[in-house]
Amino acid sequence: MKIEHFAIWAEDIEKLRRFYVKYFHAKSNDKYINPVKKFSSYFLSFDSDTRLEIMQMDSIKRSVYDPENSHIGLAHVAFSVGNKERVEQLTAELKKDGYTVLDGPRKTGDGYYESTVLDPEGNRLEITV
After folding, report:
1. Is 68 inside any structural domain?
2. Per the CB 3.0–4.6 Å rule, which of 8, 52, 68, 97 could disulfide with 44?
3. pTM flag (> 0.85)
4. What are the pLDDT digits (tens) for 13-46?
């Protein structure tokens, strides 16, 4: 069994699509639009065959959680970038480009080398080896 894809609601799927394509080398399909439901989405594919669906629909409202603090529910999505140097490089690039780095890069107590950043809509991402 494998996770085929995970999905997130977004306020601006174009902005999120550009973020994941630029920094995580996602491949994007063509935008799907359902005019009746006022729903649109993209599937973003990664090298591992895992996909992220980013979805937008006017009737979905932003949650009121604080993305810099832990909360019940999906905690983060982790991206393995291959090595320690790439973790440091990508974290520095994201920070330079104005994205929030919450932690790291550092070695965690359970042996991971990682950093934690927020995507443009406040979703927590771990960048790890």
Report:
1. no
2. 52
3. yes
4. 999 999 999 999 999 999 999 999 999 999 999 9
